Amino acid sequence: MLQVLISAGVVFILLKFLERGKNRGLDGFASIAFVLVPALLILLANIGAGIIGVDKRFLVPLALLYFIVPLFMLRLQFDLSWGRSFLYGLFVFLVVLVVDSLFYLMIGFIRR
């Protein structure tokens, strides 16, 4: 969950930079929700897959939730255009991908 907090912080800084001068309500809570909601859904899916006995490789496409959740939240809740929502959703997805990759690489180096 540490990588979720780091990702949310980076997303918050990125949104504040991209939305400077505009008051759309994109605050710290929204940036945390963009990352925390997909993380919790993926966690619940992993728990369910473990209970049922499904191979967890089938859950890899759930990483797209990091793109889908911000896309629809930005479009439907904050009334941004589809294009801007798509770009911000892509930014969130890429930030989470980079932070998670760096986090797991760092853990791998620590365990050696």
From TrEMBL:
The lineage of its organism: Bacteria, Pseudomonadati, Pseudomonadota, Gammaproteobacteria, Cellvibrionales. This is DUF3147 domain-containing protein. Keywords: Membrane, Transmembrane, Transmembrane helix. The keyword Transmembrane applies. The keyword Transmembrane applies. The chain crosses the membrane at residues 30-51, 58-74, 86-110.
